[in-house]
Amino acid sequence: MEQITVHNFSELLEALYWDSYDESIDRFRSPFVFRGLEDVNYRLETALIRLGGDYLAMEQHLLRNFRKYAHRDVVERDSIWHWLAVAQHHGLPTRLLDWSFSPLAGAHFATQNIGKYNIDGCIWMVNFLKSKEYLPEKLHKKLDRNGGDVFTVNLLAESIKKLADMKKDYKEVFPVFMEPPSIDERITNQHALFSFMSDPGCCLDDWLNDHPGLVKKVIIPASTKWEIRDKLDQANITERVLFPGLDGLSHWLKRQYSPKNKNKPIIPKKE
């Protein structure tokens, strides 16, 4: 797996937009999706794996109770993939992992927590277009017939009825990228999508270690985070935009007015 360390905002942009030109359409369309992490040592573990214990057995109970207690109108269709997408979006531990088509959204999540500016962060870049090559033939053909590069929840609902069918029907372990329905503005503004492994006990970075040609890891040194964060804020890549509502606004303002050096008071500029 290739690792790239950036030392300023310009180098970050160059790394994130690498190989984004698509000659076949004469447009810039990156084949990568992005996941920013505030600690370079964090793995690509799902919240379900991080739950610990017998998490594989707990998955069905978590989903069953989420479906039981949630309002029925929170999903547009009563399929397991619609419920998984909504559950993940609202913080339930699931087998799904959050990604974004936006490189700058990835940079935001790598630098959002100023309490971890003493730690190197990173942005994972995975080539979702090439990852299709590792899908079983049945699923690959399903995507091709529908002219898509990633699955929708409706397409998955037609292809896989039950979660247990994944391990039963497919012996090889593979990742799947899924674009969720536009549940709310947060999903839309973050240009979000999810990934999951056919075996929920498998961590994506373990699989990527065996397929290094699909992945790049951009390292953001702690000394570079402030510059990147300030320039993202000026570009309006903030919680106010990515998390519409009062919570996002409050998080943005708290960080915006937090001093870089807490021992040196600052006087905010007048608006």
Provide mean pLDDT, rounded.
90
Major beta-sheet overview = 4 strands, mixed
Rg is 19 Å
Percentage beta strand: 15-25%
Q: Percent helix among the residues?
A: 40-55%
Number of beta strands: 10
H-E string: EHEEEHHHEHEHHEHHEHEHEHHH
Alpha-beta content class: alpha+beta
Primary descriptors:
alpha+beta; four-stranded mixed sheet; single chain; 10 strands; 271 residues; globular
Map the helices and strands.
Layout (H helix, E strand, L loop, with lengths): L1 E4 L3 H8 L4 E2 L4 E2 L3 E6 L9 H5 L3 H15 L10 H10 L7 E4 L2 H9 L9 E7 H4 L5 H9 L5 E2 H7 L4 H6 L5 E5 L5 H5 L2 E6 L6 H6 L5 E6 L4 H10 L4 H4 L3 H11 L15
Parallel strand pairs: 1-10, 7-8
Antiparallel strand pairs: 2-3, 4-6, 5-9, 6-10, 8-9
Could you write a compact summary of the structure shown?
The chain has 271 residues and is an alpha+beta fold.
Would you write up a description of this structure?
The structure is a single chain. With 271 residues, the chain is an alpha+beta fold. It has one domain. The protein is 40% helix and 16% strand. The protein is built from 14 helices and ten strands. Strands 1-10-6-4 form a four-stranded mixed beta sheet. It is globular.
